[in-house]
Amino acid sequence: MSPPSPAAAVAKICFNSQCKEPLPDPPPARRKGWRLRSGEISELCDRCSCTFEQGNFCETYHSDDGGWRNCEACGKRVHCGCIVSATAYVLLDAGGVDCVACATKPSAMAPNQMISSPMLVPPLVTERREFPAKSWKSVNGPFFGQWRQASHMWNMTSAQSDLQQRLSYEFDRPNTTEKFSSGGRFSVLAHEKKIENISDRPTTSSLSNIIRGRCTNMKVRIDGASSFGTFREGNTDGVQDSHNLAGDNDSVRTRKKVSADCCSTISSGAIPEAQPISCISSLSLSNVKEEPSSLGLVASIPSANGSKEQHRFSTRQPQHQASPPLSKQFYPQSVNDAELQIQMHNGKPRIDNLVRPQLLPRYWPRITDQELQQISGDSNVVITPLFEKMLSASDAGRIGRLVLPKKCAEAYFPAISQPEGLPLKVKDANGKDWVFQFRFWPNNNSRMYVLEGVTPCIQAMQLQAGDTVTFSRMDPKGTLIMGFRKASGASNEQDSQTLKPGNDFSAPPEADCKITAKDLKGSVETRNLASTVEQRNCSKFANEGLLGLSARSSQGTSRRKGGNLGSKTKRLRIDSEDSMELKLTWEEAQQLLRPSPNCVPNIVLVEGHEFEEYEEAPVFGKCTYFAANQTRSSCSAAQELSLEQLAELIPCKTGPSKRSRVKAETDMEVSDGLDTLANLAILGEGENLPPPSQPTTKHPRHRPGCTCIVCIQPPSGKGPKHKQTCTCNVCLTVKRRFRTLMLRREKRQSEKEAETSVKHQKQQPNLLPEKTQVGNKPSKTSTLVVTNSPTKPISNEEGTSDEALESKRLSLSPLRAPQIDLNIQPEREEEPSPKFENGNMISLLANVTT
DNA sequence: GGCCCGCATGGTT
DNA sequence: GAACCATGCGGGC
């Protein structure tokens, strides 16, 4: 790039040769830039001036030029190749340069293995308006929110890219700041004082400049929201669109045009939400560099749960909050946009500067200060968030393997050369040590890193798919810290840790409602969804359990196809989709719930909403029609099976293999929201019932939402088993139905025989069980479809017939004797015969029961 | 039969 | 198209 031409000023255009924007005649918008060789001051347009004041001028306009060097002390990239930045560095006697920030430090930096003490060389410059802001700006890079780099990553060598150096200089000087504040607190006021002290020198700028620059940055984020992580702080001018400013692909790729007025807006004092600059937590403080550039800002940002949390904004240590995609996805609408953007911007995780560019944003840690504090417990440690990962179904499953993002594993975990890996000691937020096996599998000429043995930890944390685990490093010991965050924007670590122990940590407060599914196991992962439901006057059902299932259902659905919870698009859709799904399912659910026949509800007022409370469990009923134009059978358990019965009935299945269970779990269809709710409603009643079951929608004739006993059954193997001699209502009902089915089958068999012999016997099928020969066809006929038939169930008093049927049932059942496979597919053999379909079923059944 | 290990597969980025 | 990664799945114990 060529230096600005003095002629530009003469022509009353911006001195910046890359801008050349005409300067307004009345000079208010004509602002001073750098001192020219002639002694005059260049005149810049407002925009460029702003950039200059913020110290971003060279980075903005000269980033591709030569002459960039790195501060010997801090590694910060300094442009030494133009007059603009002539005052931004100090030539060192021993060679090299120091940035002004380091050069002007009154004292040596705190010990930091990575950063040498700056030479206390007073600035040689006389006009250095941008100094503090410059320091700030430098944070910007394409990764404006860089977090302190992992220590081992800080061993920068000259071979490192310029970008890396530029990035890394900003961060990871935790120790330098520890001494900076006593009591672990650091306030901007103190900082301001320091700045003022420095500003006694002509080379420093005022805090207002800093703040202005900082806020400009915020504004940038606000305006250019979506490209989080790609804006360079301080690049507030729209010009950046047309210039390759960043020098890195990320920036170039995602740079967005920012409204040109942002600079002036901010310069005019509009400081968005960056107030009270105070109270930087010790943890944060420890990461704040002892220099003006490490200005820490605090903004109150409503947490997802509605409470306002103070979030520190450190230009040097942008704090842990939402990585862009995540934050965009999870932060509720309640979060003020501006705040959110600020948060997104400034809360950029302090991720490793070298690794971060390689990490997908979804792995960027967004652990909060509170979380960090909670983890650390004291201010003498430095917590460096490394990465985080949303647990996939398999991660949270029983396999006990947590798949680690490759780059994260390679960057932050010990290098392993053997697949066996090595044990890795990880401390959780409670200080408990866990030892995982960190290993890898060869995979497609690559590696797949996993942490094995995480199940106990995950269980202890009550995590499940969709939740997020965060990995941090606690210095100086370098201890690995494993935190977690419950899914959804509403829940954070605090949330999760305040949950009551046990699986039922999300027990609804409205436990008095019969249908509250008080035993539903859920999680806070869907609090955002809960809110959605609550908004729909569904607080009773808005319990996490209920919603959690829905969420899990979603996850289950997206298992294979787009099942990656980390999938950006998927995650971005989670809220809306699930919410919509809940909208539908809730309404449907209302219709699905029916009182027991002889039950009079008590009207309970909860949160202003009326709920019908039944002494007897509601039954779940929704008609399912098997054949068009013919209500052959209502697949409604409500008519004969109470919820309690169903609850007892459901578990009557032998447990399949683990693999089958897993498969069953993954069979869950998100589109079948009704099924989900159906199961919830059913299961919610049973204390002994397993966690929400997956609907069975494998029966072609059963529509999604079908509530028949077949469809509502839980996954195989769950729940208590009933003995063969069990006489509970459920078992009796099952037996009764089974008998009905058997009789049906026998009838069909008889019909066949009859057809070949006596034609009139078609109407009088042989009902004697002894003659049935169904043994060769096991059993899928043991359909437990709850029919709508008016046929009276066969009573238990049907002595010998019952016994015969029972023995036959046992012989027919593909399962163990006392168990009935509720997963069998009735459609095959129970497919109604042509006669049935001709509407003769009732009469046939009547015959059966007589 | 169930569990675990390790690899393979395939969807997503 | 390659890399990543979630998950399936076979085989051994």
Structure summarized in a few sentences:
The protein has 850 residues and is α+β, with helices and mostly antiparallel strands. 32% of the residues lie in helices and 12% in strands.
Layout of helices and strands:
Elements: H1 6-10, E1 31-35, E2 41-44, H2 46-53, H3 57-61, E3 68-70, E4 77-79, E5 89-91, E6 97-99, H4 100-103, H5 131-138, H6 162-168, H7 174-178, H8 188-199, H9 207-223, H10 249-254, H11 261-267, H12 282-287, E7 296-302, E8 308-314, H13 324-330, H14 337-346, H15 369-376, E9 382-390, E10 401-404, H16 406-412, E11 422-428, E12 433-443, E13 446-452, H17 455-460, E14 468-475, E15 479-485, H18 493-498, H19 527-535, H20 544-557, H21 568-592, E16 593-594, E17 602-606, E18 609-613, E19 619-620, H22 643-649, H23 658-666, H24 673-683, H25 729-756, H26 799-812, H27 826-829, H28 834-849
Parallel strand pairs: 11-15
Antiparallel strand pairs: 1-2, 3-4, 5-6, 7-8, 9-14, 10-13, 11-12, 12-13, 14-15, 16-19, 17-18
Helix pairs in contact: 2-11, 5-9, 9-11, 9-14, 13-21, 19-20, 19-21, 20-21, 20-24, 21-24, 22-25, 25-26, 25-28
The structure holds a DNA duplex (13 and 13 nucleotides).
